[in-house]
């Protein structure tokens, strides 16, 4: 298909403390290998690695050097993208189903920008100092996942706009929105959670045993 998959994998994985997540193994495969297998059908896959890290051999992807932030890494990947649609996906989310990729892609084709979201199961508050504070109605909130899909030209424009205004963002959809364009929502998947904390690895090991995208 006509999609460049952009994988920012240039983080140092500091919260986990086990080095760059791309090379972390679960179920005998690295997170990068799991992630690439979700995008086997993509015409182009570009991966940003931390500076100085030797690209792994034998994987079907083009490797380049990431930047100091996720946003900078995506900006570099975007420069190298050659196809009209992009999917931006964090390497820290190795379990992506084909169904999820298809949902994001079809909404992207129709609407120019689309992201997967999920409702939140917990009660949510704004703490008042150290004390329990105002409850934020959880029905009103969603957590945002990747892959996030965009017309390549639109995401390029959004990154250029962010650079000019010195906006910094934790995902790409917020830059598109800042530019003034709507971003469609599709249903996310629990399995596409972001491996962030040590316990997450236990869940990832368990999923690796049963996973086939
Ligand atoms: O740190 P955070 O969890 O937000 O990172 C999300 C993704 O962005 C990870 O896949 C990480 O490797 C990537 N990243 C990057 N370049 C950076 C920092 C993070 O590609 N400088």
UniProtKB/TrEMBL annotation:
Enzyme category, top tier: transferase
Some GO term, biological process aspect, for this entry: which one?
Answer: isopentenyl diphosphate biosynthetic process, methylerythritol 4-phosphate pathway
- Assigned keywords, A-Z: Isoprene biosynthesis, Nucleotidyltransferase, Transferase
**PROSITE patterns recorded for this chain?**
ISPD
**Catalyzes what?**
2-C-methyl-D-erythritol 4-phosphate + CTP + H(+) = 4-CDP-2-C-methyl-D-erythritol + diphosphate
Q: Which family does it belong to?
A: Belongs to the IspD/TarI cytidylyltransferase family. IspD subfamily.
Transferase listed as a keyword: yes
Site (Positions MEP for the nucleophilic attack): give the residues: 138, 194
Pathway-wise, it operates in:
Isoprenoid biosynthesis; isopentenyl diphosphate biosynthesis via DXP pathway; isopentenyl diphosphate from 1-deoxy-D-xylulose 5-phosphate: step 2/6
Q: What does this protein do?
A: Catalyzes the formation of 4-diphosphocytidyl-2-C-methyl-D-erythritol from CTP and 2-C-methyl-D-erythritol 4-phosphate (MEP).
Name-wise, this protein is 2-C-methyl-D-erythritol 4-phosphate cytidylyltransferase
What is any Pfam family matched here?
Answer: IspD
Q: Which GO terms describe its molecular function?
A: 2-C-methyl-D-erythritol 4-phosphate cytidylyltransferase activity
EC number(s) per entry: 2.7.7.60
InterPro entries xref list: IspD (IPR001228), IspD/TarI (IPR034683), IspD/TarI_cytidylyltransf_bact (IPR050088), ISPD_synthase_CS (IPR018294), Nucleotide-diphossugar_trans (IPR029044)
Task: Enumerate the residues marked as the site Transition state stabilizer.
Answer: 15, 21
Q: Which gene encodes it?
A: ispD
